[in-house]
Amino acid sequence: MASRLLASRAASYFKISVPFRSFSSVVKDLKYADSHEWAKVEGNSATIGITDHAQDHLGDVVYVELPEVGVPVKQGASFGAVESVKATSDINSPVSGKVIEVNEELNSSPGLVNGSPYEKGWIIKVEMKDKCELNSLMDSDQYYKFCEEEDSKH
């Protein structure tokens, strides 16, 4: 147990110590929250997941807490959680509305969040209440710069 904790701390130290740590991908045409969730807007609905940058920082995802279909979500508020080998993190909704679908595949394959965060690893679909909320989210270029700045602080 102690050696596992020591190895985890060492890995964290080395990961943080790398001066120009890059992240795998930022997808164009998505909207991004500063809490590292993305939204793909199609009409009046948004597919939501966590970013590649977020899953990279979390490490291997072992469990995703999903909300029930029909529950309301509020922009910036937690609707679930992602548990990884390193930590448990809340998942915040980038938009307000009602959950119309959840990715049930994550119950048996939570690692999809790591392997395919923008496609197979999506978490929920929301019927948006107010599309104007999208204006407060970042586009891909803004998000990329946000992540660079955030990583440079570590």
Explained architecture:
The protein is α+β, with helices and mostly antiparallel strands. It has helices spanning 2-17, 52-58, 105-108, 112-115, 140-152, and strands at 31-32, 37-42, 45-50, 61-65, 72-73, 78-84, 88-92, 97-102, 124-128. The strands form two sheets. It has a six-stranded antiparallel sheet. A three-stranded antiparallel sheet has the order 4-6-7. Mean pLDDT is 87; it is low at 1-22.
Task: Give the termini separation.
Answer: 27 Å
- What general form does the structure show? globular
Q: Helix-strand pattern, N to C?
A: HEEEHEEEEEHHEH
Low-confidence stretches: 1-22
Overall pLDDT confidence? 87
Provide the spatial order of strands within the biggest beta sheet: 1-2-3-9-8-5
> What class do helices, strands and sheet pairing give?
alpha+beta
In quaternary terms, these chains amount to single chain
Please give the count of helices: 5
Count of β-strands: 9
C-alpha-based Rg, rounded: 16 Å
Helix fraction, binned, reads 25-40%
Strand content of the residues, in percent?
25-35%
Largest sheet: 6 strands, antiparallel
